[in-house]
Design a protein that fits this description.
This protein is α+β, with helices and mostly antiparallel strands and 400 residues long. 16% of the residues lie in helices and 29% in strands.
Length: 400
């Protein structure tokens, strides 16, 4: 079974994670696995390491020659055994860890219930470990759904943040104390009121830019995710070869050093305004989840870029339920000006795909920009890597 070392991140100054919006006003609440990996590689270089030493341990696809047209580009697949796999960073509240809601809703609910409660069910973005275990065991979730009427006291399932978070009644004891008690309710709040309790808030913060020429000020807004006390983000690390050498150290030791460095530097955007700085700690107990079985459904906890050998079966199977997300944006390098990365399509977290062999699935992709016009900006002299290795857990067939 995959054993995940849980890394907890708390963000006292908030967080800004770019989305597909063209403005700064929107911010995501999670940190995707490819963003985490890129931040680790960048921090490793800033700490004096050679990114080539880091990346050589991961299966990857690298462009070796650009052709006149994209179809004529030459690529090289380099196999390797990854020393670790990581999940996307998802929210936590207290010691309740949340996971992405699976895409295939129709597989877990009765058709009539799904029709009657589609609005409430469609709001769910994250499920707790208790709900996830029932999903992985192939159980129907009808009896575990929180009441459709927000005034009704829950008996099995409980909602947070307007129904975006779903957990079991027993897990409520693991929530932060201020979720359950306040000065006006010495005996504890009714559990139905938890539906209005936010784990995080997505705010628009006013900022000012000043013209260098006229000194005129102009207001703009930037999105910021602020977490409630006792809440933050967590991600899991599945160690495959923790003692694999990396320069003068090991990958496990390097991970700890880089997380400390990133905690000061920050993750995401708007770091000069204080966003993204975090404190990290390792949870006392790991998460143990079921292994994916070849050919059987598997739930993705990270983004995934299928290798050529894994296509098209992994996406065309009748057991595949997935969403795709385009990943673009800007790259930062010490060797050239800021430039746009090539866009890459990844299978999103929460997608259900058939298990494939061998592990690890997917690859790490070179997304450095390609300029095909004569006289345009020259190529970067180093790759720009985007993580697309899958960390998945097995799901049993749903019991009808």
């Amino acid at each position: 079974m995959p054993t995940l070392e849980v890394i907890r991140l708390s963000f006292p100054g908030g967080l800004h994670v770019g989305t597909h919006s063209v403005t700064l006003e929107a911010s995501g609440a999670c940190i995707p696995s490819d963003t985490l990996f890129a931040a680790l590689v960048d921090a490793y270089r800033r700490a004096g390491g050679d990114p080539a030493d880091w990346i050589q341990s991961f299966p990857r696809v690298q462009m070796i020659q650009a052709g006149p047209k994209p179809a004529e580009d030459r690529w090289e697949h380099i196999p390797a055994e990854a020393p670790f796999l990581i999940t996307t960073a998802f929210p936590y509240a207290g010691t309740v860890y949340f996971f992405p809601m699976p895409v295939a809703l129709q597989n877990f609910f009765d058709a009539r219930l799904l029709k009657e409660n589609r609005k409430n069910i469609s709001r769910i973005r994250y499920v707790s470990r208790g709900i996830l275990q029932r999903i992985l065991q192939g159980e129907r979730l009808d009896t575990w759904l929180f009441p459709a009427d927000p005034k009704q006291e829950p008996t099995t399932g409980v909602a947070l943040q307007g129904g975006a978070f779903w957990l079991t009644l027993e897990e409520c004891a693991q929530l932060p104390q201020h979720f359950l008690y306040d000065k006006q309710c010495k005996n504890g709040r009714p559990l139905r009121t938890l539906r209005q309790q936010p784990v995080f808030k997505n705010e628009q913060v006013p900022r000012v830019t000043v013209s260098r020429i006229t000194s005129a000020s102009e207001i703009f807004h930037a999105g910021r995710v602020s977490f409630a006390p006792g809440c933050g983000l967590w991600f899991g690390v599945q160690w495959r070869s923790p003692d694999a050498p990396l320069g003068q150290t090991t990958f496990r030791s390097a991970m700890e050093q880089l997380l400390t460095l990133l905690g000061d530097d920050g993750l995401g955007g708007e770091r000069t305004a204080g966003y993204g700085a975090f404190r990290w700690q390792r949870a006392s107990e790991p998460l143990v989840l079921p292994d994916p079985v070849p050919g059987a459904p598997a739930l993705l906890l990270s983004r995934y870029h299928p290798r050529q050998a894994e296509l098209p079966e992994v996406l065309t199977s009748d057991r595949a339920f997935y969403t795709l997300t385009p990943v673009g944006g800007w790259l930062r390098t010490w060797d050239a000006a800021v430039q746009r990365r090539r866009r890459l399509w990844l299978v999103s977290e929460g997608s259900v795909i058939p298990g494939v062999e061998p592990s690890p699935w997917g690859d790490v992709v070179d997304v450095r920009p390609v300029y095909r016009n004569p006289g345009s900006v020259s190529w970067l002299d180093h790759p720009v890597w985007r993580y697309g290795l899958a960390l998945a857990v097995g799901i049993r067939e749903v019991i009808q």
